[in-house]
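[09:14] KT: can someone run the structure on this one? pasting the chain below
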Amino acid sequence: MSARARKLGGRSLSLPGLLLRPAASPARARSGLALLAKAEIVIFQSPAAVRFARALRSSLRLRRGAVALAIGEGTQRALARAGIDAIVPERADSEGVLALAQLGRIRGRRILLVGAAGGRDLIAPELRRRGARVELAEVYRRTAPRLTKVHFDALAAARDPLVTLVSSGEAMAHLAALLPSTLHAHLQSQMLVVSSARLAGMARRSGFRQVAIARSASPRDLLATAGDALARHRL
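[09:31] RB: done, structure tokens below
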């Protein structure tokens, strides 16, 4: 993402909103991954899901004829490195996956979700509503990040205009809780790019005044929207 930001004429600042950690119970995670041999459809929810799954299990081989779905091109590329061809939706989020034709008629079919606990929890309930047998392999977990004085000083020294990219409500909440109030207020006064209308609503309710919605949560779409916002700022 840093290289793409430079091509747009900007500089990137790393301010983590989430910390990704291995599953609390590796044995339970491996048990979930054993269902790869039985599931008819497997949905990998992020590049991290692929990375942590591969750390737990040397092979992610699916049953013959199974379909792999990936949320986003980054997840698709991670699966390709693991030898799995995956279908990716045009929209890189839960709604995009649920709109795929492969998830249209799924009554009685066995579906495995590979990812982390928590988050929006939109996919599993909707697939169950459609009649699928849904199982979970929770291979990692999301926790609050460790923000230090290094992060705070870098943010304080960043020159305006500042554009923050957010694709998770959890990340937005963590930044609000962990940043010093003056720094968070500064973020709220600057531009924010989010990956959905839902996050835009959350941002405005929490005090952000300049909010733009990207086409998806992919880095490419987030940065494209950031570039448009910066171009308007320079006019």
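[09:33] KT: thanks! The first strand starts at residue 19 and ends at 22.
[09:34] RB: yep, looked fine to me
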